[in-house]
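Translate sequence into structure tokens.
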Amino acid sequence: MNLRAFTLIELLVVIAIIAILAGLLFPVVGRVRARGNETACAANMRQIGAALLLYANEHDGDFPQTSHTTGVKFDRAWIFALKPYVENCDKIRISPADPHGEARLKANGTSYVLNSYIFIPEIGPFGEVGASLANVRRLPFPAHTMLAFNVSDQQGASVVNDHTHGERWAGNWTRVCADIQPDRHRAGSPKADHTEGAANYLFADGHVQAIAAAEVKRQIDRGVTFSKPPMEPGDLAAR
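Result follows.
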């Protein structure tokens, strides 16, 4: 039998072809994985939205509290308050794309943070509690009112990190990215300015929308108060 071995040049050609194919395949795999995580994350947020609305329906329209308003009684915060209203509450409060998901789960934390404009009442200069929008009936444009965001990777796993600080966001992209992760769903590593990719956003009518990080930054740079609920028709036109 006449057996012919591969020459060194042939082996190098095969290796080069494999490397090219791998280079073409890996980005595709990354995009597919990111898309799957985005879909699973959106499903989590829709269930959280449904639970928030069910809770509000049984409490005269009031939403549950965040750790900011419960004092040291964290077991009254929304993460725990929603458990009677949704199955697998511990599972859906963690995003499959959150690199700190396991740590947040163990610490009773969450991959999703509630909008401070709604869930945290205004505090006056002398500590007096002012108006609150934490009632579904006080939101005139629920389809345009954001309830929840993906938490920033910069935030620790603690139970207290369950809400945003949106009043600090105006014109400051760094503060936005310290609170939320606008590029949560992307293929590959994040850009330094977090403008590549997208994230899911939960609205007060229960729908979830993916918004590109670049679009969020564009609005922030324009001075739009991105997370502030619109209260007048003019507020919608300004976006």
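Note: The chain has one domain: 8-237.
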